[in-house]
Amino acid sequence: TDFYAVIGNPISHTKSPLIHGLFAETTRQTMEYRAIEGSLDGFEADVLRFRQEGGLGMNITAPFKLRAFELSDGRSERARLARAANALKFEEGRIFAENFDGIGLLRDIEENLEEPLRNRRVLVLGAGGAVRGVLLPFLQAAPATLVIANRDITKAQTLLNEVKHPRLHVCSYADLAEQQFDIVVNATSASLTGQLPPIPEKVLQSISLAYELAYGKGLTPFLQLAKEKGVKRLADGVGMLVEQAAEAFAWWRGVRPETRPVIQRLTVALE
Ligand code: ATR
């Protein structure tokens, strides 16, 4: 049997074994996918042990994405920009690193939610690891503008300096009051603690999609506010989770699974 796994800490709430199990079933792949709780001081040894035991690939989740990237010796461009890996492949004695978070989010927004980024004004809240992962795929989708807002503006500035793209801009939350957008993505970790990023309310007034990167949190303060402002489409990160999993699955197995039925199965109504 071909072995795969997701590794993180904590790991008990992971949906990845369910998702990859459904993918394997529908594409008729014989494989086994398990969840591993990585140890905080021995993550690298855990990965190498899994490979030693015959593992072919892993998904990486918090807090190990940076360490997985550092452990790898073959890196895609998007993994390099993110400086983080969310998937590894073990092949020919090497460890290849990929980061499918951005492409997963992009696919969910453009294909599942039917909101193409091309020529749209896109706002991303936050400038942490999650945002690093999505910048490159987002810019490749040719939005009219891509604005990053963050409390700590120097962090956003650093991202801008690394990417240097004519359509990429950064600003403070206060500066947002003067601007209009079509799509707003909350990529801060505020929702994990039930907080709302300090976004001027009117920014949400005329947008067509409010996307919350976190999932399984129901209607977060960000989505709640968007709903109150009459935003038609609200989404959380379940679709992104399934889409990035499909990318990893295709990278490992050479077949692309269907995502819609899996997303439907995992989606909890946002109310
Ligand atoms: P992740 O990997 O989830 O991106 P991270 O790298 O720790 O996590 O980044 C967390 C992001 O959420 C940062 O952009 C942080 O903003 P600051 O850099 O200004 O601290 C943002 N964040 C966390 N809590 C927030 C809150 N209550 N309001 C606004 N932004 C918040």
TrEMBL record:
<keyword id="KW-0028">Amino-acid biosynthesis</keyword>
<dbReference type="InterPro" id="IPR013708">
    <property type="entry name" value="Shikimate_DH-bd_N"/>
</dbReference>
<feature type="binding site">
    <location>
        <position position="244"/>
    </location>
    <ligand>
        <name>shikimate</name>
    </ligand>
</feature>
<dbReference type="InterPro" id="IPR006151">
    <property type="entry name" value="Shikm_DH/Glu-tRNA_Rdtase"/>
</dbReference>
<feature type="binding site">
    <location>
        <begin position="126"/>
        <end position="130"/>
    </location>
    <ligand>
        <name>NADP(+)</name>
    </ligand>
</feature>
<dbReference type="GO" id="GO:0009423">
    <property type="term" value="P:chorismate biosynthetic process"/>
</dbReference>
<feature type="binding site">
    <location>
        <position position="215"/>
    </location>
    <ligand>
        <name>shikimate</name>
    </ligand>
</feature>
<dbReference type="Pfam" id="PF18317">
    <property type="entry name" value="SDH_C"/>
</dbReference>
<protein>
    <recommendedName>
        <fullName>Shikimate dehydrogenase (NADP(+))</fullName>
        <ecNumber>1.1.1.25</ecNumber>
    </recommendedName>
</protein>
<dbReference type="GO" id="GO:0009073">
    <property type="term" value="P:aromatic amino acid family biosynthetic process"/>
</dbReference>
<keyword id="KW-0521">NADP</keyword>
<dbReference type="Pfam" id="PF08501">
    <property type="entry name" value="Shikimate_dh_N"/>
</dbReference>
<feature type="binding site">
    <location>
        <position position="86"/>
    </location>
    <ligand>
        <name>shikimate</name>
    </ligand>
</feature>
<feature type="domain" description="Shikimate dehydrogenase substrate binding N-terminal">
    <location>
        <begin position="6"/>
        <end position="87"/>
    </location>
</feature>
<keyword id="KW-0057">Aromatic amino acid biosynthesis</keyword>
<feature type="binding site">
    <location>
        <position position="101"/>
    </location>
    <ligand>
        <name>shikimate</name>
    </ligand>
</feature>
<dbReference type="InterPro" id="IPR036291">
    <property type="entry name" value="NAD(P)-bd_dom_sf"/>
</dbReference>
<dbReference type="GO" id="GO:0004764">
    <property type="term" value="F:shikimate 3-dehydrogenase (NADP+) activity"/>
</dbReference>
<comment type="pathway">
    <text>Metabolic intermediate biosynthesis; chorismate biosynthesis; chorismate from D-erythrose 4-phosphate and phosphoenolpyruvate: step 4/7.</text>
</comment>
<dbReference type="GO" id="GO:0005829">
    <property type="term" value="C:cytosol"/>
</dbReference>
<dbReference type="InterPro" id="IPR046346">
    <property type="entry name" value="Aminoacid_DH-like_N_sf"/>
</dbReference>
<dbReference type="GO" id="GO:0019632">
    <property type="term" value="P:shikimate metabolic process"/>
</dbReference>
<keyword id="KW-0560">Oxidoreductase</keyword>
<feature type="binding site">
    <location>
        <position position="213"/>
    </location>
    <ligand>
        <name>NADP(+)</name>
    </ligand>
</feature>
<dbReference type="GO" id="GO:0008652">
    <property type="term" value="P:amino acid biosynthetic process"/>
</dbReference>
<comment type="subunit">
    <text>Homodimer.</text>
</comment>
<dbReference type="Pfam" id="PF01488">
    <property type="entry name" value="Shikimate_DH"/>
</dbReference>
<dbReference type="InterPro" id="IPR041121">
    <property type="entry name" value="SDH_C"/>
</dbReference>
<feature type="binding site">
    <location>
        <position position="61"/>
    </location>
    <ligand>
        <name>shikimate</name>
    </ligand>
</feature>
<feature type="binding site">
    <location>
        <position position="77"/>
    </location>
    <ligand>
        <name>NADP(+)</name>
    </ligand>
</feature>
<feature type="domain" description="Quinate/shikimate 5-dehydrogenase/glutamyl-tRNA reductase">
    <location>
        <begin position="115"/>
        <end position="191"/>
    </location>
</feature>
<comment type="function">
    <text>Involved in the biosynthesis of the chorismate, which leads to the biosynthesis of aromatic amino acids. Catalyzes the reversible NADPH linked reduction of 3-dehydroshikimate (DHSA) to yield shikimate (SA).</text>
</comment>
<feature type="binding site">
    <location>
        <begin position="14"/>
        <end position="16"/>
    </location>
    <ligand>
        <name>shikimate</name>
    </ligand>
</feature>
<feature type="active site" description="Proton acceptor">
    <location>
        <position position="65"/>
    </location>
</feature>
<dbReference type="GO" id="GO:0050661">
    <property type="term" value="F:NADP binding"/>
</dbReference>
<dbReference type="InterPro" id="IPR011342">
    <property type="entry name" value="Shikimate_DH"/>
</dbReference>
<feature type="domain" description="SDH C-terminal">
    <location>
        <begin position="237"/>
        <end position="266"/>
    </location>
</feature>
<feature type="binding site">
    <location>
        <position position="237"/>
    </location>
    <ligand>
        <name>NADP(+)</name>
    </ligand>
</feature>
<comment type="similarity">
    <text>Belongs to the shikimate dehydrogenase family.</text>
</comment>
<dbReference type="InterPro" id="IPR022893">
    <property type="entry name" value="Shikimate_DH_fam"/>
</dbReference>
